[in-house]
Amino acid sequence: MKGGRIAPWIVVVLSGLYFVLPLVATFEFSLRKRRGAYSFDAYRSVFEDNHFLESFGYSTLVAVAAILFGILIVVPTAYWIRLKLPRLRPYVEFITLMPLVIPPIVVVFGYLRLYNSSSWLPFTASARATDLLLIFSYVTLALPYTYRAVDTGLRSIDVRTLTEAAQCLGAGWPTILFRVILPNVRSGVMAGAFLTFAIVIGEFTIASLLDRPAFGPYLQNIGANKAYEPSALAIIAFGVTWLCMGLINVFGRDPRDAAAAKK
Predict the structure, then answer these.
(1) Are the C-beta atoms of 240 and 194 separated by less than 8 Å?
(2) Quick check: 125 pLDDT over 60?
(3) Residue 72 lies in a domain
(4) Do 110 and 117 meet the contact criterion of CB atoms below 8 Å apart?
(5) How far is C-alpha 34 from the geometric centre of its chain's CA atoms?
(6) If phi over 0 gives left and psi between -120 and 50 gives alpha, with beta otherwise, what is residue 34?
(7) CB–CB of 142/66 below 8 Å?
(8) d(CA 80, CA 90)
(9) CB burial readout 196-220, b (16+ within 10 A) else e
(10) What's the rounded Cα separation, in Å, for the pair 59 and 227?
């Protein structure tokens, strides 16, 4: 019995060490910029670099745009499939899994091939068009996670009953979607949003190929030219990712569940 109780804890401890030790080693190395003593000089150098603030700010704006586009595409699609077209659900799920199979480099070259050869896209040759391509690419990359997060939220509610009740009260489709369904799947939407943000912040391939001043290429450039700053940036990026995970738990929590837990 004792061996059966100890074995799971041994697995947990070993797993924790497997993930924590590299992080601790990276953090310790990032403090060695000043010889003979630990210091936060590498972090100070990173935050004083204007390119860091510019790249992180640019990636944040792109992430917000990708989140908004993703929500506008995924929420109505998942809602309509669950309400009216349940037979198409397996096919839609298969389509949303494709970004996990297709390499990002193929996605971006597909977009370039499609839009650069057409004249119907506004300001095709401008930087704004490239920013749009980057946003669309990130929406595509985040699609598997966003769709499943929203679909999980829709499973937890009675979509048909809510829709019929809203229609009986005279609500139109936009009102039903944005004032009835969307608030009830808030946890799924927030989870998809923060996962999209984490993907955008760390993505390198697409931003590099499109020559955009994003945070991913900045990380690669710093890693190729400096010694201690890359470790500091890795810790910062890790912290941002975990912050997103924490915000999912905070803002994605259903108030009704919190009230029930208090009781």
Answers:
(1) no
(2) no
(3) yes
(4) no
(5) 35
(6) beta
(7) yes
(8) 14
(9) bbbbbbbbebbbbbbebebbbbbbe
(10) 24
Q: Please report whether residue 153 resides in a domain.
A: yes
Cα–Cα distance between 23 and 245 in angstroms, integer?
Answer: 17
Tell me, what CATH number does 93's domain have?
1.10.3720.10
CB 49 within 8 A of CB 156: no
Specify the number of domains making up the chain: 1
What pLDDT score does 1 carry? 46
Among the ranges given (13-17, 32-36, 81-85, 147-151), the one the predictor scored with the smallest mean pLDDT: 32-36
**pLDDT digit string, tens, across residues 24-80:** 888 888 888 877 778 888 888 888 888 888 888 899 899 999 999 999 999 999 888
Q: Look up residue 58 and give its two tokens.
A: 């640019």
- 10 located within any domain: no
Mean pLDDT for the chain? 81
Residue 28 placed within a domain: no
Q: How far apart are the first and last CA of the chain?
A: 36
In the block, residue with structure tokens 């992430």: 63
Q: Which domain holds residue 213?
A: 51-252
Query: Is 177 in contact with 168 (CB distance < 8 Å)?
Result: no
User: Two tokens at 194?
Assistant: 């923060």
